[in-house]
Amino acid sequence: MHAVKAGIAATRFLRHVCPNQKKEFDCEETGPDCLCRTADRTPGVGDCDGSAKAMVAKGVAHIADVGPEQAASDFMTPGGAFIEGDKYLLFYKYDGTCLALGARPEIAGKNRWDVHDPDGVYQIREMVKSAKTGGGWVKYKYANPKTGKVQFKKTWVQPVPGMDAFVGCGVYY
Length: 173
Hints:
Blueprint: E1 14-17, E2 24-27, H1 50-66, H2 68-75, E3 83-84, E4 87-93, E5 98-101, H3 123-132, E6 136-143, E7 150-159, E8 165-172
Antiparallel strand pairs: 1-2, 3-4, 4-5, 4-8, 6-7, 7-8
Helix pairs in contact: 1-2
């Protein structure tokens, strides 16, 4: 297993009681962007963003262990280690070409540089920009594969060492 560095300064989490979950959580935000406010949040996750970050780190390490082609296939395996409810990995080249999208494998191989959300956010461009500076969060709207509804989404992205590519995982809220 390879050690993975997040690439950014440590995040300061805020402890609060989520009004929807009726439990305490550690979140980056406590306002309307708080991710624990979603009713279908993965049960048992102790903080709002940690599971997405952990899945990305696991994905980046998997690419180093098995190579990008096998990892891309593994990222899209239904019921596999890289798809958990409405959380899944996305793996893109910096030119916008999708290498893997856990929720929609049929998109692999397509260039999505010009795809934007209803508010005009070019999410892949924003993810590339974030990955090139070490990684971070990107907010946009996207269709939730569990509900089919367009929802706010916050995706953690991290560059893949030795490749002009990034891995991401998001949380709907």
